[in-house]
Amino acid sequence: MRSSSPIFLSVIAILLVQGMAARAQPLVADLSQHLVAITAGFTGADIVMFGATDGPGDVVVVVTGPPKPTIVRRKGRLAGIWVNREAMLFADAPTFYGIATSKPIDEVLAANQLDRHQIGVDHIRLLPPNPEARRDDIPEFRQALVRARQRDGLFATEPGKVTFLGERLFRARMALPAKVATGTYRVQVFLVREGQVVTVQTTPLLVSKIGFSADVFDLAHQDSALYGLAAILIATAAGWTAAVAFRRI
After folding, report:
1. Domain of 188, in residue numbers
2. Is residue 53 part of a domain?
């Protein structure tokens, strides 16, 4: 999963250019793979976005993981012990956020455009669903959420690089860590000219468990009682086998 044939990608890019010319589209892009399979030995994966434009311009690639409600807690001292004192819920926090650009992002788009399209970690809309939440506290909890995601490698700390081959063909590589969540990811490719987004193309990417690990995951969530019983039986059998083996030594 961590390598792609340059020759293959070049051939695909040429075909994209030909198809783009036939349809008069300013941007055509695709992924090297549309499924990332998580197995028992999964250690992460690389995805490659490649494509072509109809002329000069800057390209920004954004990969966003499926959003989910996320609670951020703030600790405080109580009788000399650190405990959770306050919490804030963010209703739609992305589980992953990666970005790659052909130039430094502040040279490509102005801040208002970055906010509008949620390009860059600092421009993701992270707000609590409760309108009565203390607005002064939102930035602190937001930064805590971003730091936690970055610590796990789930939010980009620095943008990746979109590489151009000539003025029209481009490619970008994005790394998905081992802790990546399952679900449908959104891959957006922005074509920018003179500080304005000319067009954006969105492609889905599926991250899914397969094989034995998927069966175990499904059993744990769909029938927790059976999963617990199976875990006890396996642990008991393993202990008994180890005891017999050591008795014979």
Report:
1. 6-209
2. yes
| Cα 144 versus chain centre, distance | 18
pLDDT digits (tens, 9 = 90+) for 228-244: 565 565 566 555 555 55
Q: For the chain, how many structural domains are there in total?
A: 2
Looking at this protein, which amino acid is placed at residue 170? F
Q: Please tell me whether residues 119 and 228 are part of one structural domain.
A: no
Query: Which helix (DSSP H) or strand (DSSP E) does residue 246 occupy?
Result: helix 224-248
pLDDT for the residue 1: 46
Whole-angstrom Cα distance, residue 161 to residue 100?
A: 5
Amino acid at 14: I
Q: How many CB atoms lie within 10 A of CB 132?
A: 6
- Is the pTM here over 0.90, yes or no? no
Q: How many whole angstroms separate alpha carbon 105 and alpha carbon 159?
A: 8
Residues 186 and 228 in one domain: no
**Same domain membership, residue 54 and residue 35:** yes
Q: Token pair for residue 2? A: 């961590």
What is the predicted pLDDT for the residue at 168? 87
Q: What is the pLDDT of residues 144-182, one digit of tens each?
A: 999 999 999 999 999 999 999 888 899 999 999 999 999
> CA of 169: how far to CAs of 14, 164, 177, in Å?
8, 6, 27
